[in-house]
Request: fold
Amino acid sequence: MTPEGIKERLLRLQIGVTGMAVLAWATVITGTWIVYPWYRETIAGTSLAACDGLQAPNDKCSPKEFLLSNTSGNTSDWHEFGMEWKEHIAWIAPMLATAAAFIVVYYGRNLVADRRLRTIVLELFVGAFLAAAIAGLFGALITKAAPVR
Reply:
């Protein structure tokens, strides 16, 4: 490969990796502070009696309260384990993507010659995608059990 070809592809790689890291941060921040406050709101109070007999969350019982009430089976684990992991593991994805972007931008041309650096970047990105996939899976399963209205 010519030096010009390496320069052009490296620029594309830097833009792509940085863009992915920025999108990962935007996704997690949006989910945490815009989408999921509706899930976490407290409507029914501490007794959760408003959730009794419901098939799905409504105006008197939030999705979180619906899961914690065990109205439709043993669903409290979906919140206590699933949602807690989903909310926390989702933050790992942009952190790993940012680390990968930093290495690509900082080391640039050294990526061509240093297999170890390329492997580290690849492992960081695979980790970021796995973290995002796990968070997405938990999110889908929780939304199926207690849809956000």
User: Anything to note?
Assistant: Residues 3-145 form one domain. The CA atoms of residues 6 and 87 lie 39 Å apart.
